[in-house]
Amino acid sequence: MKKYLFLFAIMFIGLLTACSSESSNEEKVTVNKLITAFTEAGLEAEDPTELDNKEFGNTREEGMRILVPSLGEDAGGRIFEFKNKEDMEKAKSYYDELSAQGPLFYSHTYSKGNFLLQMNGDMEDGQFEKYKKVMDEVIK
To answer: How far apart are the C-alpha atoms of 66 and 49, rounded to whole Å?
Structure first.
């Protein structure tokens, strides 16, 4: 009986090890991976540059600005990964409240997990939906 119990324990540990190594093989989603996914989907996400700390500073893991040339010179958006959902929601609220002040300040926002996408309000709603779709596919 002890022999069977021992064999069962070994098999169970082996199964746990296999499962944990599978989940660790999944690539971590990063801001750069999202930018790559946007471009692979045929969306504009050009000239990514790191954002200054003044843009949500130590509450975020990463922050990049991207350009969308079809919207005009120096127009585009920002992609952030925050340390936690609460900080991400505060940043999204900041952009949403700014948008509520009038069309001059309007921007599109979308969040998934701890990621936030903020894009120039001149972007058509249908085009912004394509960016959201890519985020939904990449961030599980």
So the answer is: 7
Round to whole Å and give the CA distance between 90 and 4.
Answer: 55
Checking if the pLDDT of 42 tops 90, the result is yes
Residue of 122, 109, 117, 34 whose CA lies nearest to 75 = 122
Q: Between helices 125-138 and 31-40, what is the axis angle to 10°?
A: 120
Tokens of 117: 């996408």
> Could you give the CA distance from residue 32 to residue 38 in angstroms, rounded to a whole number?
10
Give residue limits of the domains in the chain. 27-138
pLDDT tens for 76-126 read 999 999 999 999 999 999 999 999 999 899 999 999 999 999 999 999 999
